[in-house]
């Protein structure tokens, strides 16, 4: 006699056709391309409940571009206030990552403090520093005929840019990389908590020293920022600096890994960008469309029905932007890289929480591409080598060996 598999027991109020009885991280790791693997969810209902999504717990997964765009524009339903698994790693309950863990209208009050530093015009003032950082890193391996891209360049460029923006000591780079790996990619709660508390402890001491004399324009803005006419609380200052640490490191280097993995397999695109450098902004836009790495998490703020899904207050929801970037309803032939494509992406979110660092991130990506393409020819993955990547809260490349010809 045939047997029937038991129905999943999580969230019994959810209709069976909305239950997705899988581990999301494992699903995205099937095959040799996590973006293609994740995009297999397109065609499912727009909102499904995954069995294991966020730290092993169930969460709603939005499965197409339209659903995610609507959610980004609905903070009254999808709240940025922290909740759910992983929150304890940050310690004190009053601690908030400012301004990302705030909802409107409070969010806008804090965002205004940082906004002057991250406008397009202000970001252009950082061009020289970003270029100098990029050139110095490339110079360390330019004559060797190759590098391990992630360890030698991809993980280091955004970290060094962050350190210089904040006025942090550059000899702390390797320690920051260790903490970052444990905090964001740690395999268990203890590792993530230990690394997070180490970062917070260090940043707390750094802020105390900076209060005596802010060393950079960005730290001056943070330490002198006011909300409703009053200085920010000490915990909110710490939360702001911590957010810049998290936001400025992992996503940019993860994106660079996927971009250069593609570039190493597309010699025609390499040559086009060398021959037509004016096409570089279009290439950056297309790369960021095709290779998002983040899946922002939201907490459901109220019981409601959203696109047919019965949400309950306190539920977790994830918005995998790497699925949105591969939605054929928005992008024809979405897995093909086409720098002549004209389509807006939500890689950096949209609405009130549009990423503050969007212009800096694109500048770092563009500078890295120009630096490699101007110096090297026939950039490729060496014969017999392969790349390695991870899934999780942020998709990322762990290892990417490259080689090239000079001249």
Based on the model shown, name its key terms.
407 residues; alpha+beta; Cytochrome p450; 3-stranded antiparallel sheet; 16 helices; 43% helix; globular; disordered N terminus
Would you identify the CATH architecture? Orthogonal Bundle
The helix-and-strand class reads alpha+beta
Q: What is the mean pLDDT?
A: 92
Termini distance? 70 Å
How many E-type strands?
15
Percent helix: 40-55%
Number of domains: 1
Q: Low-confidence stretches at least 5 residues in length (pLDDT < 50)?
A: 1-6, 84-93
Cα-atom Rg, whole angstroms? Answer: 21 Å
- Strand arrangement within the widest β-sheet reads 1-2-3-11-8-4
Overall geometry comes to globular
**How many helical elements?**
16
The CATH class name reads Mainly Alpha
Largest sheet: 6 strands, mixed
CATH homology-level superfamily:
Cytochrome P450
CATH topology: Cytochrome p450
Q: What amount of the residues lies in strands?
A: 5-15%
């Amino acid at each position: 006699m045939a047997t029937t598999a038991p129905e999943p027991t999580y969230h019994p109020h959810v209709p069976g056709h909305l239950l997705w009885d899988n581990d999301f991280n494992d699903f995205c790791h099937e095959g040799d391309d996590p973006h293609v693997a994740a995009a297999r969810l397109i065609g499912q209902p727009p909102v499904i409940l995954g069995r294991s999504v966020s730290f092993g717990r169930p969460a709603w997964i939005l499965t197409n571009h339209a659903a995610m765009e609507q959610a980004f524009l609905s903070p009254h339903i999808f709240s940025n206030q922290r909740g759910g698994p992983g929150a304890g790693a940050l310690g004190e309950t009053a601690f908030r990552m400012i301004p990302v863990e705030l909802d409107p209208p409070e969010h806008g009050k804090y965002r205004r403090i940082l906004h002057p530093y991250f406008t397009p015009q202000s970001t252009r003032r950082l061009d020289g520093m970003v270029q100098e950082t990029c050139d110095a890193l490339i110079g360390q391996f330019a004559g060797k005929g190759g590098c391990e891209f992630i360890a030698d360049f991809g993980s280091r460029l955004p970290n060094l840019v962050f350190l210089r923006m904040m006025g942090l000591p550059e000899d702390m780079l390797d320690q920051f990389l260790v903490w970052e790996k444990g905090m964001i990619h740690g395999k268990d709660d203890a590792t993530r908590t230990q690394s997070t508390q180490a970062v917070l402890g260090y940043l707390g001491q750094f802020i105390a020293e900076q209060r005596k004399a802010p060393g950079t324009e960005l730290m001056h803005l943070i330490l002198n920022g006011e909300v409703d006419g009053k200085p920010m609380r000490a915990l909110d200052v710490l939360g702001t600096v911590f957010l810049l640490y998290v936001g400025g490191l992992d996503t940019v280097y993860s994106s660079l890994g996927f971009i250069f993995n593609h570039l190493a397999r597309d010699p025609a695109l390499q040559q086009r960008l060398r021959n037509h450098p004016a096409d570089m902004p279009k290439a950056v836009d297309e790369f960021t469309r095709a290779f998002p790495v983040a899946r922002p998490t939201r907490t459901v703020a109220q019981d409601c029905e959203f696109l047919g899904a019965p949400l309950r207050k306190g539920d977790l929801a994830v918005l995998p932007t790497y699925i949105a970037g591969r939605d054929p309803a928005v992008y024809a032939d979405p897995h093909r890289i086409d720098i002549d494509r004209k389509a807006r992406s939500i890689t950096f979110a949209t609405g009130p929480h549009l990423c503050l660092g969007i212009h800096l991130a694109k500048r770092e990506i563009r500078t890295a591409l120009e630096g490699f393409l101007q110096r090297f020819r026939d950039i490729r993955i060496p014969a017999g080598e392969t790349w390695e990547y991870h899934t999780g809260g942020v998709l990322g490349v762990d290892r990417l060996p490259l080689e090239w010809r000079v001249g």
